[in-house]
Structures are given as C-alpha cells and as structure tokens.
Amino acid sequence: MLGKLRAAGAALLVVVLFALAAGTAQAFIFSDPANLYSTSIADSWVYQAYHSTPEIAVFYGEGDYDLLYFETLGRVLDNSAEDLAKRSLELYSAAGGLRDFQLEMPLIQVEVADQKGLACAYTYQDERGNKLWEYRVFLLLPEGRGFSIALSSDGPWVKNRPPVLEEVLAKWQWML
C-alpha cells in the first residue's frame, strides 16, 4: 500500500512539474554589443540583426506589427529625462514627424533599474496607412546620454505596459 502511495505521489509530482514548466515562458538574456545594458527577452521575440545597429536593437514579436526596440541616442543636450521626452514628443507631432500623431497616455514617471525616466503611449499612422500604437520610455543616463525603450504594435494592448514589457523592464541591468 505504501509503495502504491509513493508511486501515485511521484506521478502527481511529475504532472505538477510538467504543468508548471508548460506555464513558464522561455526567455534568453540579451546583452547589447556596447555593454551598456542586458535584459531578458521572451523567446517569442526574435532579434533582428539585419535591422539592428550599434545604436538600436530590434526584436519582432508574434504579430505582424509587434516590435520591441532599445535605442541609444548618444549625448543629448537635454538636462533631464523630462526635457528629452517633451522634445521628442514635439518632434513626433511636428510637420515631418509621425503622421497623425496622437498622445494616448500622458507622460508618467518610471524607473528602469534605478534610472528614473518617463513613459507615454501614442498612436501614429505608418506609410501604409496602418494605425500603430507605441509605449515608449525615455531615459537620460549619466554623461547626458539619451536612451529609449519602445514597444510597438497595431493594437492598443501596448499602452497598458503588458507582461512582455514588464518582464523586460524587471530584468533590466545597466552596465554603466
């Protein structure tokens, strides 16, 4: 009887472990080539080496318009993350900026691995007429270096800082 209980317990343990493993998303650690940062990226997001440069790391998601990208802006003249964010949003909304730009969520304070920044969500129309949504984080790093983290898609789900972005931000590490 004791042997049957142990076998049943072991079988139940295996089933529970498989269920937990199936519910756990797989991810990989991405470190930028300049050694400025690293973070965890879900396996469903694919690094796009062809579209990436030393200044921008691009990942495609599962949807046709799902993009996640990290952009090093170099030295900027802005004195704060707020100045950087406001100047960027002015450029996005100006003539020659993003077509049909609309701020959907005002700037809010965020923190990425102890670096204070601002985030917002906005929409715009791409060159094919698709309405795209973007959640963007603006950061001003030491030595006046601008940095941006963006999640983009054709649906409003990105403005709510979805789990995919939460995981990226939670695992973010600066190598400053």
Polypeptide structure, described:
This protein is an alpha+beta fold and 176 residues long. It has a single domain, classed as 3-Layer(aba) Sandwich (Protein Transport Mog1p, Chain A). The chain is 24% helix and 42% strand. Strands 3-4-5-9-8-7-6 form a seven-stranded antiparallel beta sheet, sandwiched between helices. A hairpin with a 2-residue loop joins strand 6 and strand 7. The N terminus is likely disordered.
Q: How would you summarize this macromolecular structure in one to three sentences?
A:
The chain is an alpha+beta fold and 176 residues long. It is built from three helices and ten strands; from the N terminus they run H-E-E-E-E-E-H-E-E-E-E-H-E.
End-to-end distance: 61 Å
Tell me the strand percentage band: 35-45%
Q: Could you say which overall geometry the principal axes of the C-alpha atoms support?
A: globular
Sequence stretches where pLDDT stays below 50 over 5 or more residues: 1-23
Q: What is the averaged pLDDT score?
A: 88
CATH homology superfamily: Mog1/PsbP, alpha/beta/alpha sandwich
Number of helices: 3
Which architecture would the CATH scheme give at its second level?
3-Layer(aba) Sandwich
Our count of domains comes out at 1
If strands are numbered along the chain, what order do they take across the biggest sheet? Answer: 3-4-5-9-8-7-6
Strand segment count: 10
CATH C-level category: Alpha Beta
Secondary-structure content class = alpha+beta
Helix fraction?
A: 10-25%
Return the CATH topology: Protein Transport Mog1p, Chain A
Please give the radius of gyration in angstroms.
Answer: 20 Å
H/E element sequence? HEEEEEHEEEEHE
Main sheet: strands, sense, barrel: 7 strands, antiparallel
